[in-house]
Every structure is written in structure tokens, then in C-alpha cells.
Amino acid sequence: MKLKLHIIAFLITCFASAQVTFEAKVSKKKLGINERLRIDFVMNGDGDNFNPPSFEDFTIAAGPSQNISRQWVNGVKSFSKTYSYFLAPKKRGKFTIGQSTIEIDGEVYKTLPVTIEVTAAIDKPKDPNDPNYIASQNIHLVAEVSKTNPYLNEAITVVYKLYISPNTGVETWRELDNPRYSDFWSQNINVKELKLVNSTFNGEDYRYVVLRKTVLYPQKTGKLNIEPLTLDIKVQVPTNRRDIFGSRLLKTVHRTVAAGNRTINVKPLPQAGKPLDFSGAVGSFDFEVSTNKSELKATEALQATIKVSGKGNLKLFELPKLTLPSSLEVYEPEHSEKVSTNLAGMQGQMSNTYTIVPSYQGKYPIPSVSFSYFDLTTKKYKTINSKELVINVNEGPIKNNGGNNSNTSTIIKEPIAQSGGQFMSFKTTTNFISKEPSYFFKSKLFWVLLLAPFLILPIAIFLRHKKEERDNDVVGNKVRTANKLARKYLSEAKKALGKKEAFYNALERALHNYLKSKLHIETSDFSKDKIEQLLTNKSVNGDAITEFIDLLKSCELARYTPFSNVEMQQDYSKAARVISIIDKQIRR
Prior knowledge:
24% of the residues lie in helices and 40% in strands. The protein is of the alpha+beta class. It folds into four domains: 21-119, Immunoglobulin-like (Sandwich), CATH 2.60.40.740; 131-266; 290-399 and 413-425, Immunoglobulin-like (Sandwich), CATH 2.60.40; 474-585, Four Helix Bundle (Hemerythrin (Met), subunit A) (Up-down Bundle).
């Protein structure tokens, strides 16, 4: 009886194993729109010509990936082949994933349709080992605003800092979306070098780099919005896998970070005590009116300058105008700015320079000019009045107010020439200089041009001969080329300091090309034992050989372990020193 049962079980097993199956399996049939769906198309035969469904209501996040499994259990052979996809839903609703087909042993098999329900976004459980989750917890972009309730036209600064946890690295970053400061006058301050600074974030140890600095002057009152800066960052995060040395392996993931919207409440300038001549200057300023001379002749020119200097919104207001007697000829002023912008705002000076030309003798007053500004320190308006100046024209025609005086001088006005922004009388005296003619024949230039071909010819023959010798030196050319490449790659390694992968790739190429130039071996022949043997035969010191081999190991380990900027700088300095030592010791 037992024998019969065993035979029946064996026949059932053989029949079941001979039955071909092809089905679609999903990780879940109900998911949130912020989740991912895995679907596996599983068959127990080795099929060909797999045709997946269209997935028209989903975005393929990954796949297809293929997996084949063969097993022997209790003498029974089993086979499984799987095509896997990861899908992201496009919208909410109920959707049907259609049939897929496969051809196995000449027969076409189809899966059954699968219905999936997509709901609103859900709170996903956090996997502490998920690299994306680790990146989201260990890297933050922060916009630090110096003041959130400034006055109109008062400078504020926005400093964008990228905070990074100690066990996380950043390979590269690029700006996805730049903020538009539509309600501000803005200027970015150049960040010359990214410096890593140790700090804290939310009470934990972090490092940060300053990516951007911007100075803003609000041009409207009320609540103004500072748009966020958005970055796409390649982040290196540790995984739960380890290399052969026990160090954690790093994985590179893309992370999008934004600084977030910031709201600024801009206060209007007070109306109480506001001067009539106030033109919008906010800050701390000095004011003066000056002339380059106090006495002159008629038809000569002088310069009168109105200058405002100090700290504040220098480029955002107009300078006062100069009022002069109508008998003085005044030209349009030349505007000059010497203003620099840093995190404290604008500082420097602005000026308008007027060119004035009197036509008659006399004394001409330049009335006092006033300049008003809002002082941020005292929160009050201040007015500065310039001194009254007098222009004394002591030579020239006298103005006749009656019009019938026969002694009235005829006014002849010299033309005023403008050069470099200044007016001056034309020079009327001309000096003529006569020069004897010179002849080209038998001159120095004549003899140089005549003898030059005879001097150049032997030099050209010599250079051509040396070039032919150099071209025929095949081994020497290879050595020179490898030397050139070694210098080139070592230079590239220096430029790539701070970028781990690029730095160690360039450093490894530099070391290899140096060996090619000195040992005359190809890259395919490289091995650490052979390099050590060849350098020993060339009488290179054992310590130098060991350091060289260690550098090659560092280049290999850099693919699997994190390296700090300090370690990269040390390896670069070591490479330059070792190459110099070997170059002195090696026997050619």
C-alpha cells in the first residue's frame, strides 16, 4: 500500500512539474500615489519573446530586470524565470494592468489582467537603511536671512548654507531653480572658494559650506516673499554593506533639496519729520559740494562736484541738483560711481560733476545745497547742508546791463573742448617742425633686410636636422610623451582635489604614465610585484618603492571607501615627493 502511495505521489509531482505556468504577481493591489508597485512576471519554463503590458497609467521607475533560478529538491528539478518592474502611479484611481505574453516551447502563454487601486498619498514607514532616507536626514539646505523686518531700502542678506552630516559626502551639485527677487534690488556676492566649516544643526554635529550670498534691498513695503533656491545633489551615503577591510560601502543617490520660502515684512519709512527734499536715501552718509578752483578767467572752465559717500542704498536714489546763476553756462553733469557691495550692503561714493564756464567778470555765488537721508541707527531723518561757495572771475569782458554803452566790449567766447569729461580752451598756437628727408638705400634697415636670408638659412638647416633626429628617436619620443602625460595627469589631479573619484583616477594615470616613461613597460604589464622588482633593479630606495605601492593601493581603495580632502592633499603631496625621489635615484 505504501509503495502505491509513493508511486502516485511521484506521478503527481512529475505531472505538476511538466505543467507550464506563467503569471503576474504584484507586491500590493492597493497603494498610495507616493508609493511604488513591484510587479513580477514569473514562469516555470525558459521562455522567449517576452512582451510586457503597456503600463499606460504608470511610470516605469526601474526595470525590466531578469532573474533565473534553478533548484534540486529531493531529486526533483525546478526552474523559474522572472521579469520584474517597479512602477510609479501617475494619478489616483483604479487601473488595470493588461496581459503580458511569453513563448515557451513554441506555445504562447498569457498572464491574467491585474487591477490596482491608487489612493491619496500615505505616510510611508521609514527604512533606516534606505539610502534615500539617509540622504534626506543627513543633508539640508538653509537660507539664513539677516533681518526679517527691515525698513524700505534697508539692506538684508541671504546666505545659503548646505549642511552635511559627518558620515555623508557630496560629489556634485547643480541649481535646479534660482530664486527671482522680483520685489528687491539684488546682487549676488561671488563665493570664491567652498570652505567646509564644522558646526551644529538641530543640536547635532554637522559641517556646512556657503554656496551663495545675496544682498537684497526691498523696494516695496508689506510682506514680500523670497523664493527658494533648489538644488540637485549627488550624495554619498553609507550602506549596511562592508568591503573586505570592514569599512562601510558608500552609495551615491540623487537628492533634491530646497531652502524653503521666506517671508520678509518690510516697514515703510516714517512720515513724521520727513524732509521735502528727501529722495529715498537710507543708511549713513556724508555730503559735500566742492569746486576745483575758486578764481579763474572768463571763458575758462571749472568743475563743481556734488558727492555723497558712506554706507547705504547708494545706487537707489538721486543726487541733489546744483542751482547756479543764469549768467553761467552749465553743462550736463557727469555721473560717477565707486560703489562696492558686500554682506554689509553697498558702500562707497557717488558724484555728479558739473562743468561751468563764466562769460563775464564778477563774483558768482553757488548757493548751499541740502541732502536728506534716513539714518538707520537713530531711526530719524537727517539733513546735511553744504557751504555756500563763491566763484571769482577776475579777468574778461564786463557785462553791460544798459545795452547803450559805447565802451561795451565785444564778447569773443573761446570754444570749450571736452576731453576725458573735462572742458578746456582749444590750444591756438601751432609749432611747425621741418625734417630732412631720409633715404632707404644704404640705411641700417636696408643692410639688415639684405643679409637676413643668409643668416636665417643655416639656422633653418640646423633646426630641421635636429627635428629629423628627434622624429627618428622612437623610444625617446615614447619616453617624452609619457613624461608629458605624467605631468599633465598630476596637474589634473591637483585641479580635482576635493572630488574623490576624479582626483584618484587622475593620480593613478599620472603614476602609471611615469612608470611607462622610466621603466619602458606598458600599462597591461603592471603588477605591484613587477613594479617593485623593476624599481629595485633600478637601485631605488625601498622606502620610496613602498610609498609608491601605497599610492597605487590608495587609488584602488578610493573606489570603495570615503577619503577626506586632507587625505587627498596628503596623497597628492606624497605623489609629487615620491616621483621626485625615484627620478633622482633611478638608473637610466
